[in-house]
Design brief:
CATH architecture: Roll
Number of helices: 3
Largest sheet: 3 strands, antiparallel
Distance between the termini: 26 Å
Low-confidence stretches: none
Number of strands: 3
Order of helices and strands: HHHEEE
Helix content: 25-40%
CATH topology: Urease, subunit C, domain 1
Strand content: 15-25%
Length: about 90
């Protein structure tokens, strides 16, 4: 559920920021991950890739820092420690 919410935020920010600067893109990704976790009071549990924190991960083919739209081409999703989607095969 949290991951879906974050992806919606990322996509909305993608529309808002377009392909401006890498810095703006990085800030958009942070807003959808670590900053969102802080806002929801979940920073001690999630929001970053760090030992001891919960993390749902996605693997994309192209760098989302180049363009946030690259997040739409998801190759792999790991949810609750299990592979949920695998398009790498």
């Amino acid at each position: 559920m949290f991951v879906r919410f974050l992806l919606v935020i990322v996509l909305l920010l993608s529309v808002a920021t377009g392909t401006r600067q890498v810095l703006a893109t990085k800030q958009a990704l942070q807003a959808a991950t670590s900053v969102a976790a802080e806002c929801f009071g979940l920073a001690q549990r999630t929001g970053a890739i760090k030992a001891g924190l919960e993390a749902d991960l996605i693997v994309v083919e192209r760098n989302p820092l180049d363009q946030l739209g690259n997040l739409q081409d998801v190759l792999l999703v790991i949810n609750n420690g299990r592979v949920a989607i695998n398009r790498l095969r």
